[in-house]
Amino acid sequence: MDSDDAALLRRVGTGDRRAFDVLYARHAPWLVLRLRRRCRDPELAQELLQETFLTVWRAAAGYREDGAVTGWLWAVASRRLIDAHRRIAARPSTVGSVAPEAVSAWSPSAEDEALAGSYDAALERALHRLSPELRAVLQATVLDGLTVRETAMLLGVPEGTVKTRAMRARRELREALS
């Protein structure tokens, strides 16, 4: 089956299991690698991969062909990753248990690790002073290469909010570095 990704996704939306299998075989390898770069736990990465493709199976009929399927898949996977992070952070702690931050399954992304050595100290401090919302937009648009629409879908905010946050983040970085 040599269909392009958008055609496969349309077929998945109609319940075509064979098209789903092809889409999975085509995209699961790179997707699980990217998920593993974002979290230390390989079992969690596999679980997130399965959750991602379960979401794809359920939501394929609603996919609009206004972006690359790979970007949409990564946006779905990123959302599952964020949800998992929230679940881990929300776990109640018991007396004598270790704080979630101490046993977190999260590590810096490969991009963060690679770029950490190339940033000078002033830029690194400026990035860390940004609010989490602004850093999330920079992460999605700059490091992950998502479009404004994909970033909006990933973060669950309107596209205009993504644009505003990106502009504010750039302005704050410029001011901090000047």
Automatic annotation (TrEMBL):
This is RNA polymerase sigma24 factor. SUPFAM superfamilies: Sigma2 domain of RNA polymerase sigma factors, Sigma3 and sigma4 domains of RNA polymerase sigma factors. Residues 122-173 form the RNA polymerase sigma factor 70 region 4 type domain. Residues 23-87 form the RNA polymerase sigma-70 region domain. NCBIfam families: sigma70-ECF. It comes from the Bacteria. Belongs to the sigma-70 factor family. ECF subfamily. The gene is rpoE_14. Keywords: Sigma factor, Transcription, Transcription regulation. PANTHER family: RNA POLYMERASE ECF-TYPE SIGMA FACTO (PTHR43133), RNA POLYMERASE SIGMA-70 FACTOR ECF SUBFAMILY (PTHR43133:SF46).
